[in-house]
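Convert to structure. Protein one:
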Amino acid sequence: MTGLADGTDGPNGVFIYAAMPAYPGNSAGNKPNYWVDVTFNTTAPTVVANAGPDQSVVLPGNAALDGTASSGTITDYAWTFVSGPNTPTITTPANVKTSVTGLIQGTYVFMLSVNSGVSTSQVSVNVLPAGSNITIFTTQVPTSSTQNDGQPIELGVKFRSSVDGFINGIRFYKTANNNGIHIGQLYDALGNNLASATFTSESATGWQTVYFSSPVAVLANTTYVATYFSPNGTYTGTANYFTSAIVNSPLTGLADGTDGPNGIYLYTTVPAFPTSNSGLKSNYWVDALFSSTISAVTANAGIDQTIILPTSTVSLDGSASSGATTYGWTMISGPNTPTITTPAGAVTTVTGLIAGTYIFELSVNGGVRTAQVTVNVLPAGSSITIFTSQTPSDPTQNDGQPIELGVKFQSSKDGYINGVRFYKTTGNNGVHIGELYDRLGNKLASATFTAESATGWQTVKFSTPVHITPNTTI
């Protein structure tokens, strides 16, 4: 680099008086240095776009795109949508960071372009249904077969989240003949046990999942260890897996050497914190179930129901449960043992019912949550009522003038209204008349109560049953 001597290619120390930037063509003649300089390199600067690691988002969340890992002298950024199940909104496409809204379930690809296309980079965003969990390994599976060390073993993977959240449970990948009762656990980096749960209803192979009885709050950028105990010493391991970090934002499986070795184990006869490592940076395929909010796992066995013989089949519906990955229907009590057609299904039929009251229980996620439903089976010719055996606890009221009182209702099935009943408390005297109206006020039937008792449910039947249609207000 050479600052030219005055006279070489004209005078040096040039200036111009101007109200806005302009070429300085004047010289004072005294060869001054105005101390303006340049930076120089013999090679062009390298500009590299970096759209950040792939990430998972759980609905109704938004994605956060981040290009701050891009390098070089960058003059402009441009985020664009490449592919996905719909066209979302990139809030500030010209910024290094931007949010993306309007996402639906599916996989999106976004591209970051810097310096008008000098370098580009893409990032995938996997949008999961509401109530889903984010995992480290997503859909990855091992290719190695089951190993057997011949003694009980605890196996673990160190990980972090980039945001505060909750660990709802543990999963591990099971290959053929990895038998025994497995126990999933979560530890902090010091070896304190934060949660534990036993796997149930395992399949022969594939990812096995268990939920903790309560979600465990975890802090951002803090190391935790997901583990499982294998009493027979069987497991699957992939060597040299953690030579680099495995990122599914916000989760990261730590690279070996970040906060100590990864791929840790312990030979132990009971579940315990794994402290040994083989030096092979192995992945033992144990994973955490993460959510940024508390994942509410609930069991919902549906509403109580009544049927009349000869109908002897009911449908049990647990699809209103939330966060459920496995289902299990069992009978708690009843006058006989009917057949639950698909006990592992969210929805199942039950056949072979007889007159009496049954209680069925739905267990989700291996017993993390349960719920019960009652099925009342009535003899042939019986009538179904809204309030079954319920009765009021309030005394009789008196408004001092004649009054008509009503309750709106619907039936989920086509059928017939045979009559009306009302609950009579002490002092509710007089001749009572039962009526049925449609929602527009048209009278459909009427009948006078006779032979009333002093108190209790009073019933009257219409001379002719009234046909009603499903889901219609009466």
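Protein two, convert as well:
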Amino acid sequence: MLNSDIGPVYHLVKQLGRLLPAFFSDIGAEGVMRDISTRIDEICMRKDPLSHFLRKQSHVESSNQIVGLMEGALSFWKTGSKEGLKPLLPPNIYAQIETTGPYVDGVHRMVGRLFEQEDLNGIDDLLKLDSDRLKERAGRVAALTAAPCCGD
């Protein structure tokens, strides 16, 4: 259905998708993904436009398109380049994204160091890590960088 021409019946298909429990659990938008996006937004006191938009979209959209946005955010935090976010964000949100500053610098250092220490090549490699290992490594990286996150 995702690759079908549903334009004429888009709203009906969207309503149907909301009725199917597998729709939400397949992407995790109602569980861990939503909880994490909320936590990140709260840490940043809702002042980081990217984190705030990410949280709002994961709560409202609840579709597989949010996965691409989250991967784009991870890529931005890894590289510091926001170009990859351009097709994923509305122009007004994209214009608000800073490439340096209190809501970017600490996260950029932490994600960059995590990629270095784990010898990861891309976002896919990060997503394949076991969650317990990722938590342990992220905690270790946070202690090493001693970098404040989101203006803390």
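The chain has a mean pLDDT of 80. The chain has two domains: 7-72+87-97, 98-152.
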